[in-house]
Amino acid sequence: VKSRRWILALDVGGTNMTAGLFHDEVGEPLVLRSRSTPVAEGVGAVVARGVALLDEVRKEAEGAGVPPDRIVGAGIGVPGAVDPTRGIVSRAPNLAWNDVPIRDRFQEALGLPVVVDNDANCAALGEWWAGAGRGSRLMVGATLGTGIGGGIVREGRVLRGVTGSAGEIGHMTIQLDGRSCSCGNRGCLEAYASGTAIAQRAREALEEQRIRHREGGDPNRAGRPDDVDSPLPDHVGSTLSEDAGSILDSMVDGRWEELTAAHVSRAAGAGDELARAIMAETARYLGAGLAGLVNVLNPDRIVLTGGVALAGDLLLEPVRRHVRRQAFPSAAEACVIALARSPEGAGVRGAALTFRREVLEGHR
Ligand SMILES: [Zn+2]
After folding, report:
1. Which residue, 194, 240, 183, is CA-closest to 217?
2. Ligand 1 midpoint to CA 195 (Å)
3. What is the pLDDT of residues 124-137, one digit of tens each?
4. Which residue has the higher pLDDT, 73 or 26?
5. pLDDT score of 293
6. Quick check: 240 pLDDT over 50?
7. How far away, in angstroms, is 190 Cα from ligand 1 center?
8. Interacting residues of 250 by C-beta distance below 8 A, sequence separation 6+
9. Taking all residues of the chain, what is their mean pLDDT, rounded to a whole number?
10. Angle 345-348-353 from CA coordinates, rounded to 5°
11. Which of 17, 101, 186, 187 has the most CB atoms around its CB within 10 Å?
12. Is the pLDDT of residue 234 over 80?
């Protein structure tokens, strides 16, 4: 009789955490639970909530007939730089963690062996196991969220590089002396095409539009009492279609600081010109970055995941076009660019497979 082994998994995000239980040979969870991440309360609170969530999952699995001694360990995905050998999160800006020995803390609390990895590596592996990366020999997973993460999966294993940081595709320079990035460098892909960057570029475009309106003196704009320039005749304003005013402004009641990439993609979907221009530009940045990866790695699959990927075809189609135009033709032709099957579940699934690979199979 084949032994049945079960693996706990936890994907710690900057907003929510998801826990699940997986059979070691099945990419679908038996139990799945989500809860918010208490980032502001510090590492201890996050670990405590993660452990509580995993305990809930354990209890529910027991109720479903999984013997507790068949649960062999846990895989954990964390958004940040992880040293998987020592189980230490060296830097996780979204959680405000520095040098946290996260593996030992979870091991002690759970009484089980634990493996920790970067969340984008986990998401890539999860999509390879039971998602849009299935059957791929060389896959790049691009997580487009608050930042841009990446994971490279070769023959079902995460390519880690010499010190474990391989796959950081968000920090490829796409613009010399460009926008400041969270990593301290300038011009990184993440500084242009992450959710944060999309929202920021939208705010800047709105500001430019407002200045144009002031200079153009459009008399129809409400709430601009300092609009003192002499207005252009009506017919002039109406021919400047890009100056028609964006619905992004009304979507957040003029509170631009609340704008997110989701607003921009929704407005673009509704035909808003300013939002469409932002999304088209985003696709160019992503296309440039991914075309470089296609030329360097010659992968057969690129899987886009994370919140920004929820924009769907609005982003996917132009990204495909830019990659086809910029990458070597044979390499571009061999590479399928697809959206993740489960942008939310890939990380927790990949965390489970990471445990299987590293502990049950003994691979690094
Ligand atoms: Zn960077």
Report:
1. 240
2. 14
3. 999 999 999 999 99
4. 73
5. 98
6. no
7. 6
8. none
9. 90
10. 120
11. 17
12. no
Does 212 have pLDDT greater than 70?
A: yes
Residue type, 309: A
- DSSP letters of 240-280? -GGGS--HHHHHTTT-GGG--HHHHHHHHHTT-HHHHHHHH
Helix (H, G, I), strand (E, B), or coil: what is residue 324?
helix
Q: Where are the beta strands (DSSP E) in the chain?
A: 6-12, 16-23, 29-36, 71-78, 81-83, 88-92, 97-100, 114-118, 138-144, 148-154, 157-158, 301-305, 336-339
* Cα-to-centroid distance, 150 and ligand 1 (Å): 13
DSSP bridge partners of 89:
82, 100
- Measured at the CA of 322, the angle between CA 329 and CA 336, to 5 degrees, comes to 60
Residues near 79 by Cβ (< 8 Å), separated by ≥ 6? 12, 13, 14, 92, 94, 95, 118, 119, 120, 147, 149
Distance (Å) from CA 204 to ligand 1 centroid: 20
Q: Which two tokens stand for residue 180?
A: 């400041």
pLDDT in tens, 155-200: 999 999 988 889 999 999 999 999 999 889 999 999 999 999 999 9
Distance 187 CA to ligand 1 centre (A): 7
Q: Match 């918010």 to its residue by tokens.
A: 36
- Whether residue 221 has pLDDT greater than 60: no
pLDDT band at residue 56 under the 50/70/90 scheme: very high
The neighbourhood of ligand 1, an ion, using CB within 5 A, equals 171, 181, 183, 185, 188
Contacts of 153 (CB under 8 A, 6+ apart): 124, 125, 128, 133, 136, 138, 139, 140, 141, 159
Task: Give Cβ neighbours of residue 290 (< 8 Å, ≥ 6 apart).
Answer: 140, 142, 302, 319, 322, 323, 327, 337
